[in-house]
Design a protein that fits this description.
Blueprint lengths: L3 H11 L3 H21 L3 H10 L14 H8 L4 H9 L13 H21 L11 H9 L9 H11 L3 H32 L1
Helix pairs in contact: 2-3, 2-6, 2-9, 3-5, 4-5, 6-7, 6-8, 6-9
Length: 196
């Protein structure tokens, strides 16, 4: 079993921004959900999701280059390092997603940003009442959450041999199923910061 608390402390060493921490927890939860749905080890998939943007806040220009060095220095496996770094394929590294888990991460990382940005515009501030048609509308609007690459999402869906509707539906379902848990973790983590 991988040590999640150790991974979380590593994440928090390199990430202070609440947005980046929430994104890491969200992608961790999404990846764990996908692993269960697809019949894989949720611990490994979740760990990759938690650590996928480890270096992004401090080293955006060296994203997944610095992460490889950091993860090697604390003895993470080559499999985990490859999986983490492959999600920046053709952006900062040439490490292509090979395994199903890497292709899922490559695709849902960007998509989760669009879905979450869309949820924040809703009166509920939640994905709980968000519908597929809303995700599709936000995806088509290139100015909305412009930092989230539609090309990466399309490329990822193609790697998976899934159509966009399937990717949108599953990722939205994953976020609905895990949002309360992520909210709780954020509340606990930031309350802990306030009292220390």
């Amino acid at each position: 079993m991988m040590d999640r608390e150790k991974a979380l402390q590593l994440l928090l060493k390199y990430n202070k921004n609440k947005f980046h921490i929430r994104h890491a927890l969200t992608v961790e939860a999404i990846m764990g959900w996908y692993a269960k749905e697809l019949g894989y080890d949720p611990d490994f998939w979740s760990m990759v999701g938690l650590l996928h943007d480890l270096d992004f806040e401090m080293y955006p220009e060296q994203h997944c280059i610095k992460a490889a060095d950091i993860l090697k220095s604390v003895d993470y496996s080559d499999d985990l390092i490859h999986a983490v770094c492959s999600h920046a394929y053709n952006v900062t590294v040439d490490i292509k997603p090979e395994h199903l888990m890497e292709k899922v991460l490559y695709t849902v990382d960007e998509l989760s940003g669009i879905i979450w940005a869309g949820a924040l515009m809703r009166p509920s501030k939640s994905v709980a009442d968000m519908q597929l048609k809303s995700v599709k509308k936000k995806f088509k609007d290139k100015k909305f959450a412009a930092g989230c690459s539609r090309d990466i999402i399309r490329d990822g869906a193609e790697m998976l041999n899934w159509d966009l509707d399937k990717v949108f539906t599953l990722t939205l379902e994953a976020m609905r199923a895990t949002e309360t848990r992520v909210d709780k973790q954020m509340a606990e983590r930031f309350e802990a910061y306030k009292s220390s």
